[in-house]
Amino acid sequence: MNAAINTFVLVLASIFPVVNPPGSALVFLGLTSGATPELRAILARRIALNSFVLLVCSFLLGALILQFYGISIPILRIAGGFIVAVSGWKLLNEGSRKELETPAGGVPHKLLDQAFYPLTLPLTTGPGSMAVVISIGLSEATITRAADRIIFVVASVVAIAVLALTILLCFAYADRIQKVLGPGGTDIAVRLSAFILFCLGLQILWSGGNELLSSVISAGFAPRP
C-alpha cells in the first residue's frame, strides 16, 4: 500500500505542475471566447478524455513509439515547444476577444474539431508532460517483481486519471472565472497566461535544443577508436 501511495504522489506531483490545469483553463477560456457554457463543458470532457488517453499511451508505449520512429525526447521537446510558443504568441496578440466562426446552426464546429489539436495537444498535455510520463514509464524496467510492476502501473494510471479529472473541472468551470474577473480582468488574465504559455514554449524548446546540442558536443569530443 505504501508503494502504491508513494508512486501515486510521485507521478501526480511530477505531471501536475507541467500541465497546470488552473493556468491552462485561462488559456482555454481565451481560445473559446464567445462559446456557450454547454459547448465549453463538451470541450472540457473531450480534452480531459484526450489528455488521459494521451498520457496513458505515452506512459505505456511512449518509449517504444519514439524508438520505432527514431525520435528522441529532445526533438520531441523542440517540436512541441515551437508549437506551444506559436500558440501563446497568437493568443497574446488576440487576447480573449477572438471571434468564433459560428455557422447557421449555431454550433461552432470548427472549435469542436480543435478539441484534440491544439486544445489537448500541445496546449494542455504537451511535450513536457509527455516527456515526464515517458521518463516515469522507463523506470518500470528497474522493477524486478511482477507484483510491484502491477502496483506501479496501476498507481500511475490512477494519478493520470486524477489529473484528467482536475482538467475537466478547471476547464468546465472556466466561465466562472470570467464572471468573477469581468471582461477587462479576463482579457488581462488571458494575456498574462498567454505570455506564460509563450515563455513555457520557449523554455521547452530551449531545453530540447540544449540537450540536443550537448549530445552533439559530447559526441564530437568523444574519443575515437
Give a concise summary.
The chain has 8 helices and no strands. It is mostly helical.
Description:
With 225 residues, the protein is mainly alpha-helical. It contains eight helices and no strands.
SSE layout and pairing:
Blueprint: H1 2-19, H2 21-31, H3 37-69, H4 73-94, H5 109-112, H6 127-138, H7 146-172, H8 174-221
Helix pairs in contact: 1-6, 1-7, 2-7, 2-8, 3-6, 3-7, 4-8
List keywords for this structure.
8 helices; single chain; mainly alpha; 225 residues
Mean pLDDT across all amino acids: 81
Number of helices: 8
Order of helices and strands: HHHHHHHH
Distance between the termini: 50 Å
Structural class designation: mainly alpha
Shape: globular
Approximate strand percentage: under 5%
Poorly predicted ranges: 96-107
Largest sheet: none
Helix content: over 70%
For the secondary structure, the number of strands is 0
Radius of gyration: 19 Å
